[in-house]
Amino acid sequence: MRLGRLVHAAWVAGSRPRSKSFARALLDPENAQLAILKRLVRSNARCAFGVEHGFGRVDGPERFRRSAPIASWADVEPWVDRIRRGERAVLTREPALRLVPTGGSSRGPKLVPWTRGLGAEFARAIAPWIVDLNERFPTLRDGPAYWSVSPAIDLHVESRVPVGFDDDAAYLGGPLRHIARRTLAVGGEIARIRSVETFQWTTLLLLLRARELRLISVWHPSFLVLLLDRLPAWWDGLLEDLERGTLSPPGGLDDATRRVLAPCVRPAPRRARELRTVVPGAPCGIWPRLSVVSCWTDAHAARAVPALARLVPQARIEPKGLVATEAIASVPFGGRRPVAVTSHFFEFLDDSGRPLLLHELRDGAEYVVVVTTAGGLWRYRLGDRVRVEGFAGRTPSLRFLGREDAVSDRVGEKLCDAQVAGALRDVLEGSVSATFAMVAPDGDADRPRYTLYLEVDGEIPAGLAARLDQALAANPYYAHARRFGQLAPVAVFRIDAGARGAYAHACASLGRKLGSVKEIALSPRSGWTEVFDGDYVREPR
After folding, report:
1. How many whole angstroms separate alpha carbon 97 and alpha carbon 425?
2. Are 490 and 465 contacting, i.e. CB atoms less than 8 angstroms apart?
3. Which of 192, 259, 338, 473 to pair with 59, CA 20 to 30 A apart?
4. Number of domains the chain contains
5. pTM of the model as a whole
6. Residue-number span of the structural domain to which 126 is assigned
7. What is the DSSP code (8-state) at residue 328?
8. What is the rounded distance in angstroms from the CA atom of residue 33 to the CA atom of residue 373?
9. For strand 215-217 and strand 292-295, is the pairing parallel, antiparallel, or unpaired?
10. How would you class 397 by CB atoms within 10 Å of its CB: exposed for 0-12, middle for 13-18, buried for 19 or more?
11. Distances in Å between the alpha carbon of 210 and those of 101, 143, 145, 233, 264?
């Protein structure tokens, strides 16, 4: 325990200089942002992107805007393909150490370049959060933490650059990454497990060992809810493994992974005896000193927070900032979530599409985030819509409202319209004569699903929902959410007639002109069962 306290203290102490710099920058966001822009442009003027866009002549935000257009992933992807093939100095002078996958373009997962500079930008955002968290919850230093680990996603990508990270601690970079890992109850070793049941069993087994667990950090709250829901049914088997130092998950385990995990599952008979006095699967008795659960609490994630709060009433549910694979946009700090002012260079698009700088934002207004990073994303439209809710110093504090337009991301699946259009084409062509087909989120708050709203001439073939479910799983993040039970299987809703008219009038009721309404493959809205006349298709058992 004493060693753990020392390691934790070293982590917090190592984070303090960056936290102090962040606090100072909150008082002067204009100059903090200008310094970041000048550094990024100057250091990358001689990379391929910098040469093509005349970075050598950029002396401030206005010329930067004239030199580099706002970019979507379709604009970035050809440059990343050059990096993937092994070309150097493409988007940045620094080499890309890894390509980190995130969800959805029409060609599959986006591969975000990860450089040392981007790692430093993430660390400059995480450090003030860690310091602030420990100042508000001093007992965190007295026990380990669980930082989200996910089973590795199978990506068949040809790349000269390594693809992916194993766990959240990798985002810290540098020495802090290694220090932080010494405080973890569950290490990145379990990321090699492919079976969801085996992964969940092993995670729970390692967490049961950690009586003094103080912090849980996950992304979507449903991930943790589903994990904890496994405890009652598995309780006796987990305690037997805990007592004997064995690992006997229901999904089995290959020998190579078992050897890697063996040092983590040594016998703990005393802890097993203690847990046998606890109500089976009750987190209050398992981790009585759990202080904080950090997770997303905004937009669609908010619907899963009450269920999580009921499971861990002994802990405070703390909102995460706005964190994406590409960038960290905001940081929990001082009771607010200010923009990560010392990390990346930010612009914000208002409803007219006009780009504004950080110090120009208004309280209560809504914007779309545009970010420039040391990883080589230049004026990249992040796809997140935010609202300013007060200020930390002079820096706006942000609330995440949701993804832009035709992207749906209820539990981290990150489906986009192009992906769904491709899946529908593969599933429907040659088997269904559809006059209208659209996929949208549906189902209850605890376990959402996607429903295919379909108007057809003739019969709907058996197994259509399962085939669409499989086609959507080409997106590995959708597949991951399905494997973990965060999403229920796809359903099919047959529309009796008049689908296009009902769809157009529903869009018009939201303020869109009827003449500008276009049919889409994916609607991020739910509630379409109230719009269309029809019923769910019952698949034969």
Report:
1. 36
2. yes
3. 338
4. 3
5. 0.80
6. 2-220+230-282
7. B
8. 12
9. parallel
10. buried
11. 31, 8, 9, 20, 12
Report if residue 295 sits inside a domain.
no
240: helix, coil or strand?
helix
| 317 located within any domain | no
**258 and 366 belong to one structural domain:** no
For residue 296, being part of any structural domain is answered with no
Residues 397 and 411 in one domain: no
The answer to whether residues 414 and 526 belong to one domain is yes
CB 389 within 8 A of CB 363: yes
From CA 419, how far away is CA 488, in angstroms rounded?
19
Domain co-membership, 154 together with 49? yes
DSSP letter (8 states) at residue 462 = T
Q: What are phi and psi of 233, to 5 degrees?
A: -70, -30
Specify whether the CB–CB gap between 388 and 364 falls below 8 A.
Answer: yes
Q: Report CA dihedral (125, 131, 136, 141) to the nearest 10 degrees.
A: 130
Place of tokens 């890992």: 181
Q: Which residue's entry shows tokens 């609202």?
A: 387
| Amino acid letter, 527 | G
C-alpha torsion sign, points 465, 104, 324, 391:
negative
Residue 105 falls inside a structural domain: yes
Contact predicate 428/420, CB 8 Å: no
CA-CA distances (angstroms) from residue 106 to 109, 144, 211, 422, 423? 8, 40, 45, 8, 10
Q: What are phi and psi of 63, to 5 degrees?
A: -70, -35
Residue given tokens 């020495």 in the structure block: 175
305 and 317 Cβ atoms separated by less than 8 Å? yes
- For residues 332 and 320, the answer to whether their CB atoms sit within 8 Å is yes
The residue behind tokens 């040659």 is: 430
Give the Cα separation of 302 and 296 in Å (integer).
7
Domain-ending residue, one of 364, 382, 402: 402
Residue with tokens 């500008």: 516
pLDDT in tens, the chain (541 residues): 455 677 778 888 889 999 999 999 999 999 999 999 999 999 999 999 999 999 999 999 999 999 999 999 999 999 999 999 999 999 999 999 999 887 655 456 789 999 999 999 999 999 999 999 999 999 998 898 998 866 655 567 788 998 876 555 565 555 555 666 667 778 777 877 878 888 889 999 999 999 999 999 988 887 888 889 899 999 999 999 999 999 999 878 888 888 888 888 899 999 999 999 999 888 999 999 999 999 989 876 786 788 899 999 999 999 999 998 899 999 999 999 999 999 999 999 998 899 999 999 999 998 999 999 999 999 999 988 899 999 999 999 999 887 775 678 888 888 877 788 888 888 988 788 888 899 999 977 678 999 999 998 888 888 999 999 999 998 888 998 998 899 999 999 999 988 877 887 787 676 554 444 566 789 888 899 999 999 999 875 5
